[in-house]
Amino acid sequence: xxxxxxxxxxxxxxxxxxxxxxxxxxxxxxxxxxxxxxxxxxxxxxxxxxxxxxxxxxxxxxxxxxxxxxxxxxxxxxxxxxxxxxxxxxxxxxxxxxxxxxxxxxxxxxxxxxxxxxxxx
Length: 121
Hints:
Blueprint: H1 3-18, H2 41-52, H3 58-75, H4 79-98, H5 105-120
Helix pairs in contact: 3-4, 4-5
């Protein structure tokens, strides 16, 4: 065992004896681990840190915003509102597509346009 590992283990043991870990949130409950098999191994730690800090990778943030706009589009009442939301949705889909993502965002934009026209009737 490396010296740094021994020091770390010693400090953890001392903190446990002092009861510093007794009030941690989730104590006594199972740890739910994310399924990150599809994330490249060299990115897993970085993504986990970002997630714990409340940040998402840009692609996922875009997809979250697209989902939000889709929900608003389904609830839109006026034609003007649907028009603005359609423009926003098309912009987001094109932005996602330009990021080199695997999803065919332009076809998705066409689908959403057809969907919004259908909702008008």
